[in-house]
Amino acid sequence: MSGVQHTVHDFEAAARDKLDPVHVDFIAGGARDEITVRANEAAFGRLQLLPRVLRGSAVRDLDITLLGSRARMPVLLSPTAFHKLVYPEGELATVRAAAAAGAIMIASMASTVAVGEIADAARATDSDAQLWFQLYIQPDLEITEALVRRAVDAGCTALVVTVDSPVLGAGERNRRNGFHDLPPGLRCENLVDLRDGERGHVRQIAMSPELNWEHIDWLRGVTELPVLLKGVLHPEDARLAVRHGADGLLLSNHGGRQLDTVPATLELLPEILAAVAGRIPIVLDGGVRRGTDVVKALALGASAVGIGRPVMWALAQGGEEGVRRLLELLRDELDDTLALCGASGLADLTPDLVRVPAWAPVPGPAVAPGSDHRFGGGAVV
Ligand SMILES: Cc1cc2nc3c(=O)[nH]c(=O)nc-3n(C[C@H](O)[C@H](O)[C@H](O)COP(=O)(O)O)c2cc1C
């Protein structure tokens, strides 16, 4: 497929044409039967928007400030590993595009460019876009602390700690394809030389089944940066996150790549919001593909959303230019949806704009045939 991309799905189709099918599977795939992968997108499709009218505004404000980081759109680039797998410049191309759009990028700990270089590339654009760093807490806390220091030295303004990965998700497509390692020449650059005297040593990312809340307490003690937890799904854990000093949650099921059959993140949003009771912001990712999806999540109470796969597809399709166009597209769709909902900015997005369809007719008093029932009786749906 060639030509211009008009939707996020067009980027996916274009990337599929370009990439090695093994890498397509790595990006598109999820855990086990991929039930949660499908559920994330489907959940957005099930909700309806109920717009307001005649609240005119010529321009719409899409700016946000999230834990002290300012952005020109409420769409973050969720952390995704291995950008060089799909485009030679890798994360450098991605961050330049994010900076141009004024979007917050969360650099993955498993990036193929070191976080310091990603930050330098962002700064070179003269944009004030912020970079966050995603961390898997390592069993060796000295190593974890060295990673945090790297993120701080790079100028990252928040840490996103992924807590849904005590073990690696079962990506059966990858197993079938025998895709276990990065190709020669590529490596996780953040994991190079983490301990003094380790010249050229590259560590493997360790998943830590022993992780517990004490690790979060420990992390709070080693950094002043805002800490968001990524992958909290149970409301009780959301309450614990607040108690343990988390500054925010990235409500995420890892795009369906960890535990299969967990609910769509959108479905969990009301429960998680109720659990944290406004004390910390909630960012949501998983299945966001349209401006209408962004509006639904924000109207229901999310502070922002994240996108994972779309960034990989756009990067594969067109490098920096591709990601820039993807973000512009989402921004245009978001702006257009706000206008159609009668919103002059994100602050106007309220839960009454979103409805779960009620297919069953609401029973009302019977109306005699031929009677004028305009002002009484009848079903009000
Ligand atoms: C190719 C790929 C790599 C990912 N790598 C990471 C990662 O390194 N760390 C992490 O916390 N999440 C990772 N994720 C999950 C994303 O951060 C995000 O939660 C998910 O992709 C959102 O769903 P979406 O792809 O439907 O937008 C990855 C997802 C994909 C598709």
Please provide the ordered H/E string of secondary-structure elements.
HHHEEEEHEHEHEHHEHEHEHEHE
Quick one: CATH class? Answer: Alpha Beta
**Number of individual domains:** 1
CATH superfamily: Aldolase class I
Instruction: Describe the strand arrangement of the main beta sheet, using strand numbers.
Output: 4-11-10-9-8-7-6-5
Query: Low-confidence segments, ≥5 residues, pLDDT <50?
Result: 372-381
Folded structure, characterized:
The structure is a single chain. The chain is α/β, with parallel strands linked by helices. It has one domain (8-346): TIM Barrel. The chain has twelve helices and twelve strands. It has helices at 8-18, 21-28, 35-46, 91-101, 115-123, 141-154, 172-177, 213-222, 235-243, 265-276, 291-299, 309-340; strands at 48-49, 64-66, 69-71, 75-77, 105-107, 131-135, 159-162, 227-230, 248-251, 282-285, 304-307, 354-355. An eight-stranded parallel beta sheet has the order 4-11-10-9-8-7-6-5. Strands 1-12 form a two-stranded antiparallel sheet. A two-stranded antiparallel ribbon has the order 2-3. Strand 8 (227-230), helix 9 and strand 9 (248-251) form a beta-alpha-beta unit. Helix 1 (8-18) runs antiparallel to helix 12 and helix 4 runs parallel beside helix 12. The protein is globular and about 80 Å long. The protein binds flavin mononucleotide. Flavin mononucleotide (FMN) is lined by residues 27, 40, 78-81, 108, 110, 134, 162, 230, 252, 254-255, 257, 285-288, 307-309, 312.
